[in-house]
TrEMBL record:
The keyword Glycosyltransferase does not apply. CDD domains: SUMT. One of its GO terms (biological process) is siroheme biosynthetic process. Pathway: Porphyrin-containing compound metabolism; siroheme biosynthesis; precorrin-2 from uroporphyrinogen III: step 1/1. Keywords: Methyltransferase, Porphyrin biosynthesis, S-adenosyl-L-methionine, Transferase. This is uroporphyrinogen-III C-methyltransferase. It is an enzyme of class 2 (transferase). Its EC number is 2.1.1.107.
């Protein structure tokens, strides 16, 4: 029996209108979709009526399936001759563990196609009117995961500051440690930032403040995942008053 193909598909930041044409066509034609919890229900609604949908949703410290089991599921279904659409929020190769799933499939001789998506960072920034790079404010952008193991031991020095933008994925739960770490590494307490919750969705919120106030901001506003933290001068360009407010609050 000929094996099926595994399609690692980026579902983009949430809005179905931001899917690539390739992603939309695969979702609409797929008989089997294995999806993450961050994929918006409106995107899953594009699937055909007889499609089999399997959720492998992950939350902090709570996984429906461990990653090794997800890899095994994809390989098993493909070996049975079924094409599999593996649907991931954002882009599959940006904090989506798509690389691990691709390698697991290729190790078993399974064909894999990568369908990139608009990343959560790009979608959230665009929806918030934040230019991640700007000739007058930032020529460097860095992406980091805020809930990885050994966070305190990682070297983030130089990732944020003048002329730089730092985008933190999965940083809501570790906001106090993130703020403490960055300030300990020399980042100014009044550095402006934005917390973007539910980007590209009707319930999207954009919260702004200085770095020193990040923990209080997240707690007071009860920020929930999915959310991104964008740190840098570019976040203050949307509203000139933000920078002044940040300095006032940090004083």
């Amino acid at each position: 029996m000929q094996s099926g193909t595994i399609y690692l598909v980026g579902a983009g930041p949430g809005d179905p209108d931001l899917l690539t044409l390739r992603a939309a066509r695969l979702i609409q034609s797929a008989r089997l979709i294995v999806h993450d919890g961050l994929v918006d229900p409106a995107i899953l609604a594009l699937a055909r009526a007889d499609a089999r949908l399997i959720s492998v949703a992950k939350q902090r410290s709570k996984h429906t399936l461990p990653q090794d089991d997800i890899n095994a599921l994809l390989v098993r279904e493909a070996r049975a001759g079924r094409d599999v659409v593996r649907l991931k929020g954002g882009d599959p190769f940006v904090f989506g563990r798509g690389g691990e799933e691709m390698e697991a499939a290729q190790a078993e001789g399974i064909s894999v196609e990568i369908v990139p998506g608009i990343s959560a960072a790009n979608g959230a920034a665009a929806a918030s009117g934040i230019a991640l790079t700007h000739r007058e404010s930032a020529s460097i952008v860095s992406f980091v995961a805020g809930q990885c193991k050994g966070l305190s031991d990682q070297d983030w020095a130089g990732l944020a500051g003048k002329g730089r933008t730092l985008v933190i994925y999965m940083g809501v739960k570790t906001a106090p440690q993130i703020a403490e770490k960055l300030m300990a590494d020399g980042l100014a307490p009044d550095m402006p930032l934005a917390v973007i919750e539910n980007a590209c969705r009707p319930e999207m919120r954009v919260l702004r403040g200085p770095l020193a106030a990040l923990p209080d901001l997240v707690e007071a506003e009860a920020v929930k995942s999915p959310a991104l933290i964008v740190i840098g001068e570019v976040t203050a360009r949307v509203d000139g008053a933000v920078a002044a407010l940040a300095k006032e609050l940090a004083a």
